[in-house]
Design brief:
disordered N terminus, 369 residues, alpha/beta, 16 helices, five-stranded parallel sheet
Length: 369
Amino acid sequence: MSPMPQTSSKPVVLAVDDAPENLHVLIEVLKGDYNVIVAKAGEKAMMLCRNSPKPDLILLDVVMPEMDGYEVCRQLKKDTNTANIPVIFVTSLSEAGQEAKGLSLGAVDYITKPIIPEIVRARVGNHLDLKRHRDHLEDLVEERTRELALLKEVTIESLATLTECRDPETGGHIMRTKNYVRALATRAAKDERFAGRLDPNTIDLLYLSAPVHDIGKVGVSDSIMLKPGKLTPEEFEQMKKHTLYGRDSLLKAERKLGSNSFLHIAQEIACGHHEKWDGSGYPFGLAGEAIPLSARIMAVADVYDALISRRVYKAPIPHNKAVKIIVEGRGTHFDPALVDIFLEITDEFRSIALEFADYEEEREALASE
């Protein structure tokens, strides 16, 4: 473990007591090692805790007018901005029940009055040391979380790069489709028909996973992948297998990482983005809700982009005509609810397409009515 960061400034201790003489004693005991700030009432203590910098530790009296120490502690622990500040009750109440109540509210310790300076200094020092260790561990966890997020992104981008090596038409397509997917999922998350199914983490994974929807094309022969024209029915049957190739390769990796792997959504998309709502798609002929939501979102993004993009065998279709074709596929090719949401954000789709267009011909088609 790397050494904990050091700070030259003294820790801030907030002492809360309605009796000035008690505050004076605490200041005298602690002033050599800490910056001591004081409050004579609960409301004032709450205000100081919300200021920046927040206190590193709070010494809190129990018996105070208007808002007692228990209520102050309860309020502090309810607020995520102050919940992690250690609270030590300093009180003349010595009954075991009172101490248990304070600890149950989240206090870390209990000091009885009259205070003994050596005990106060020792307990304050111990709990500040514990807080420093805990904060350092939280920093390490955050750093590791960032590293894992970066690993996910790099892994997906590396896989997507393999597709680009085989398919010269995927560069802009990858950038466009992952942004379409994020736009559609973000809007769908606000729709009650998808309530609870598209949280921010899932949307991020959809965005990261979208680029590998055609990863299975690395398993399709060059004679088909690089053919400068439309495929024959037989060739198309071979091309359709890219969904299974993609699923199988990602599924193997997912099994090694566990069922909660970030690759789960990637393999759903790779396998299912050519399924159709009415069951006429491939590779399995799934229908309706049996098609993973991730794949249904990808289907809208993929088809829209195929329509507005230039191919060796076709010119790009204008945006409005592409929207019309998507609408015509509502309930047959596409999830009806997603088409409804798509119609609300077609301008956003057009903006994404313009930003990442590969050819001037595509920009002209997108700008035409």
